[in-house]
Design brief:
This protein is of the alpha/beta class. The chain starts with 5 loop residues before the first helix and ends with a helix.
């Protein structure tokens, strides 16, 4: 595999050239990544040249609408789905609430759904509230020691044939382990259930082929994936046309409008095409395919290889410390570079100490109250979370380790 050109990569992100950020190593990417230049350029162009109601016959409006359509089409192609199976919303949390409302109308009393206690609350809470309508909510529980979500433990939950929906994360925002999405989706389908996959913590590490994964719903956040503050939602056609329309009644015939009850943020939707620009440029620069799904797959492999190489020294260091508990696996393969540790004092306080050493990290529960609680973590202390992506370089990992040596 071609080695990632880290200097080229960092040149695509204006944050790395800002004087105010020099010497600062960014380790809270799971909360929101830096934005690539391609997205910024498109956002600036829309606000300065296209900021009118789109899809009218005059030029500025026509171009604005075309740019919005371009974003949907190119991202859908990269994710291996049809263009109208992808839609935008104000956030993944909001998108999930809309979907839960659709299922509230769709499911019958006595039906069951499965949720996990590995999820961020955004892909757990809205679904659990369906219990108020007589829907049985069954919890697929993690291993309290490792945080692992065992696929074998799902089968008994679906054995009676009542489960209509299984909601689970591609990977947890604190445990970091990458779940076997394709295997879990196949298992659910065999049992007659649909699947909703929270991809928020995985998508920043590469766009997956959602079509190949077999997920009926796949959700992620553009602002954590080098883009603007939008939630991106894939709903496969069979399910999307079966669920009750949540949009304006006259938009019920449009799949990508059925679950977007509010007007979209035109500029941010259009700017999301910059995410596709970046993935294609990343692939092409390294000799890979220049466009579409091929570029996305090639970029994904580049990104993951870099991240695994960055994880190795950090996980080895953390595993050698008796003064902390590493959440999730100590192996760099099979997990995302989202690394949480439980300490003898609040994670937020430790993050503040690290800030004095040029480390931008986070502390708290990160809306992952259920998994942390299930693993016996003191929720008042929370965890220290150090999350990074492919644009992090090895020198920053060493800077982090040196800072940790001083504060823990």
């Amino acid at each position: 595999m071609t080695q990632l050109d880290i200097d080229w990569v960092r040149a695509q992100f204006p944050a790395f050239s800002q004087p105010s950020l020099q010497g600062q190593a960014f380790f809270e990417n799971a909360g929101g990544s830096y934005t690539c230049q391609q997205v910024i350029d498109r956002l600036f162009r829309f606000y300065t040249e296209r900021k009118v109601q789109p899809y009218a016959p005059y030029e500025a409006s026509r171009l604005g609408g075309e740019e919005m359509d371009e974003a949907r089409a190119r991202l859908a192609a990269m994710l291996g789905v049809e263009t109208d199976e992808l839609s935008f919303g104000p956030s993944t949390t909001q998108n999930t609430y809309v979907l839960a409302q659709a299922f509230r109308q769709y499911l019958d009393e006595g039906d069951a759904i499965v949720v996990t206690n590995q999820d961020h609350e955004a892909n757990s809470g809205p679904w659990r509230r369906l219990a108020d309508e007589g829907i049985e909510v069954r919890e697929w529980q993690i291993d309290p020691e490792t945080g692992h979500l065992d696929p074998a433990a799902l089968a008994p939950l679906m054995a009676d044939g009542k489960v209509r929906l299984v909601c689970f994360p591609h990977c947890s925002n604190v445990v970091g382990e990458v779940n076997d999405v394709a295997g879990i989706c196949a298992q659910a389908k065999t049992a007659g259930a649909y699947t909703c996959v929270d991809g928020v913590s995985y998508a920043p590490h590469g766009f997956e082929d959602v079509g190949a994964l077999g997920a009926d719903i796949y959700l992620f956040s553009a602002y954590k994936t080098y883009g603007p503050h939008q939630g991106i939602m894939v709903i496969r056609r069979t399910l999307g046309e079966e669920l009750p329309n949540q949009g304006h009644y006259f938009n019920g015939g449009s799949l990508y409008k059925r679950f977007t009850p509010a007007g979209p943020d035109h500029a941010q939707v259009a700017a999301s095409a910059g995410m596709a620009d970046y993935m294609e440029a990343l692939s092409a620069h390294h000799g890979g395919p220049v466009s579409g799904a091929g570029a996305a797959r090639f970029a994904h492999e580049l990104m993951r290889e870099q991240e695994v190489s960055l994880l190795e020294p950090l996980l080895a260091y953390l595993s050698s410390k008796n003064s902390l508990r590493l959440i999730g696996s100590a192996s760099p393969t099979g997990r995302a570079p989202t690394v949480a540790v439980s300490l003898d004092r609040p994670g937020e306080a430790v993050a503040a100490e690290l800030a004095a050493h040029g480390i931008m990290a986070g502390g708290g529960d990160f809306y992952a109250v259920r998994p942390l609680g299930a693993m016996g973590v003191d929720l008042e202390r929370g965890v220290l979370r150090m999350s990074f992506t492919h644009y992090t370089h090895h020198g920053e990992i060493q800077q982090l380790i040196a800072a940790l040596d001083k504060v823990i």
